[in-house]
Write a structure and sequence with these properties.
This protein has three helices and no strands. With 95 residues, the protein is mainly α. The chain crosses the membrane at residues 26-45, 57-81.
Length: 95
């Protein structure tokens, strides 16, 4: 019986993630972009030449943070647009 409880809580967690992803779609995009930047940085690690490891890691960190900040900014703009269009639709009905 405890295995059924664990399985049902897994379904609830999965649906919660999907619900949150639908509410703010740029969060998963930011996470995927960060993972892509880190993967690209690790792939480029073998051909970095004379560049110091610390400089390479700093560039990789800045790229990942830039992608996440960009995704957050787009998410805020998207949510502001949704909120503005919802208020605009309410104004047309006169309610």
């Amino acid at each position: 019986m405890s295995s059924n409880n664990n399985f049902s809580s897994f379904d609830e967690n999965e649906s919660k993630f999907m619900r949150k992803a639908k509410e703010s779609p740029f969060v998963p995009i930011g996470m995927a972009g960060c993972a892509a930047v880190v993967a690209f940085g690790l792939w480029r690690l073998k051909s970095r030449g004379n560049t110091k490891m610390s400089v390479h890691l700093i560039h990789m960190r800045v790229g990942a943070q830039g992608f996440i900040v960009g995704a957050m900014t787009l998410g805020v703009i998207y949510s502001m647009y949704k909120e503005y269009s919802a208020h605009k639709d309410l104004g047309k009905d006169g309610k």
